[in-house]
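Per your request, structure below.
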């Protein structure tokens, strides 16, 4: 797991803040289990966050049902699935939260654990993390 975090950190440092286009194919979407698999990953992620004392305080005022739906949209879109992300920008969503690197990494750890629990292959995990990594700069220290 430490290697995955290092990969995500390095990708985050190298990535620009501009959103990328969705993948040109939907293979990652299928590797994540399609819509149902992504929903299970998001549910696992939210459970992991709720049990994580390092970051749960950032979600105390969050509409969890909306967060659930927006994460499914975002992961589906980033994986090349048939979704459009309709949520707020990462900057708008995270301004005022003052999330630091350790907290960002804690959330990544929770996402990895949720994907592992669903049996997502490590290569697919890395592909999704690589798609999400450019958002790092829009999330931390806002």
């Amino acid at each position: 797991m430490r290697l995955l975090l290092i990969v995500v950190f390095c990708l985050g440092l190298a990535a620009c803040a501009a959103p990328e286009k969705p993948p040109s194919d939907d293979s990652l979407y299928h590797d994540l289990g399609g819509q149902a698999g992504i929903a299970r990953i998001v549910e696992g992620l939210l459970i992991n966050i709720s049990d994580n004392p390092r970051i749960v305080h950032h979600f105390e005022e969050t509409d969890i049902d909306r967060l659930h739906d927006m994460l499914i949209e975002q992961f589906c879109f980033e994986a090349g699935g048939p979704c459009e992300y309709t949520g707020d920008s990462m900057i708008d969503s995270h301004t005022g939260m003052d999330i630091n690197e350790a907290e960002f990494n804690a959330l990544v750890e929770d996402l990895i654990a949720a994907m592992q629990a669903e049996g997502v292959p490590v290569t697919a995990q890395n592909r999704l993390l690589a798609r999400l990594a450019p958002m790092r700069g829009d999330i931390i220290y806002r």
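Helices lie at 2-14, 27-31, 34-50, 64-78, 90-94, 101-117, 122-132, 136-139.

Regards,
D.
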